[in-house]
Amino acid sequence: MNKNDLISAVADASGLTKNDATKAVEGVFDAITGALKKGDEVRLVGFGTFSVAKRKASTGRNPRTGEPMKIKASSQPKFKAGKGLKDAVN
Predict the structure, then answer these.
(1) Helix 18-37 and helix 3-14: axis angle, to 10°?
(2) Which of 18, 35, 58, 83 reaches 20 to 30 Å from 75, CA-CA?
(3) CA dist., res. 90 & res. 85, Å (int)
């Protein structure tokens, strides 16, 4: 399922127009992204939790030359599925 499929599914399930469903889906994505940018966690009970994991700086190797290179510290988005989602899939 891609983003357009998701928008269509939301429109069908909620009775919204495709335009309104697009705004709703975009609004959810923007809200989650904004919360993660601030370092907050987004908990959707029964679905899962979006959070940010901090990665430390490290040293890696360039696969072509074998030279050591520095990898900067970064923040990575993370998702942990909730019990309701796990049960629905299994």
Answers:
(1) 120
(2) 83
(3) 9
- Rounded to 5°, angle at Cα 32 from 28 and 36: 170
User: At CA 52, angle to CA 50 and CA 56, rounded to 5?
Assistant: 155
Q: Which two tokens stand for residue 23?
A: 């705004």
* 44: its two tokens: 């959707």
Reduced to 3 states (helix: H, G, I; strand: E, B; else coil), residue 57 is coil
* pLDDT tens across the length of the chain (90 residues): 999 999 999 999 999 999 999 999 999 999 999 999 999 999 999 999 999 999 999 999 999 999 999 999 999 999 999 999 999 999
CA atoms within 13 A on the CB side of 18: 5
pTM value?
Answer: 0.79
**Sign of the CA dihedral with 20 first, then 40, 76, and 85 last:** negative
